[in-house]
Structures are given as C-alpha cells and as structure tokens.
Amino acid sequence: MKQQLLAVALFTSIISSAAVAKDYSGFRLGVGAVSGQEFTFDGNTANSGNRAKIEAGYDFNRVFAINGSVTAFSGAAYSESSDGTNAGGDIRGRDVRLEAEMGYAFNLAKGWDIKPYVAVGGAFINGTKRGFIGGTESAPHPELTSFKGTYLTTAAGVRLNTPVDVYVDLRVQKINMNDQQKANSVIKDNSQAALAVGIKF
C-alpha cells in the first residue's frame, strides 16, 4: 500500500511539474534600450548613451532559459590640443550576445509571474573607429580602423510576465575581460543597465 501511495505521489508530482513547465515555456521577443557602455580610444573616453536593443529568448521552464540580443552602438570623443583645435574620433559597432539564464519564476497571481535571474554567456563585438582633426566629420583621416572581439558576459535581472503575455525585463549586465583584452580593446568592461518590453508566446 505504501509503495502504491508513493507511486501515485511521484506520478502526481511529475504531471504537476510538466504542467507548470508547459504553462510557462515558450518564446519571447522584445525591444528596449541599453545605457552606460563606455569606450576608450586614442586617449579619449566616450559613452554611447542610450542605444536600441532587440532581444529574443526561450523559456524551457520556470528555471532555465536561453537569451539572445543585438545592439548597435556609437560614440564620439574629442580633446582640445595646444593650438586650440580639437582632435578625436568616433566609433560605430554591433554587440551580439547569447547567454544561458537561471532563476525561478514565482507566481504572484493568475497570469502574473516574476523571475529574478542570473545569466552568463558571450558577446561578439565588432565595429570601426576613425579619427578626426578639427573636431568635425569634414576632416576625417582617410583610413578606418576595424576592431572585433569575443567576451564573457554576465547579468542579473528580474522579468515580470503579465496576464496579457507582455513582459518587462530590467537587468544589469557586464562584459568581463582578461588583462590582455582590457589593454587592447576599445570596449570598456563597465556595467550597463538594460530595459526591454516584449511579448511572451
């Protein structure tokens, strides 16, 4: 009898877990903004300010998910030389990320879930930089310098799912670099804040 009760309890637990996973699993697609990415080049430091972000993800269950995003960025920095003219440059590029996510989506009410999470993954960042004399784009150097790199990324955030299948995601993310990457990359390893709104299918 005890074995039968144990088997029934185990079967019920498996069915309940499957129902929860099925209820929560699915794709996500959203748009948002990232703020705070800094660059350093030619002795100058620039901040990209707010930049647009497109993201997609898939929730396997209430614990595990996978995320991807694409962000375009740009920045410019100038410094005044001894003769009163400005010299500097600008930078344009793309940040493509893929990461694994782990947390737990707590049910707040019918259709409302909130998930604190952490994520780890990688970013491929590439772009071009060019220098200016005189501080305007009317006098660029003739050559463009390209850059690219692959970096470890980490993030911590919270995502709210609503009964109308709209979600809001707020996170802090960071590029993690080794000493060689810090010395050679135009991208700085400072933290950024990101906000996205999207639809959960």
From TrEMBL:
First and last residue of the signal peptide: 1-21
GO cellular component: outer membrane
Coiled coil: none
Keyword tags: Signal
UniProt superkingdom: Bacteria
InterPro entries reported for this sequence: Beta-barrel_OMP, OM_autotransptr_brl_dom, OMP/PagP_B-barrel
Name of one Pfam family that matches: OMP_b-brl
Keyword Signal: yes
Limits of the Outer membrane protein beta-barrel domain: 8-201
Protein name per the record: Outer membrane protein beta-barrel domain-containing protein
Protein source organism: Vibrio maritimus
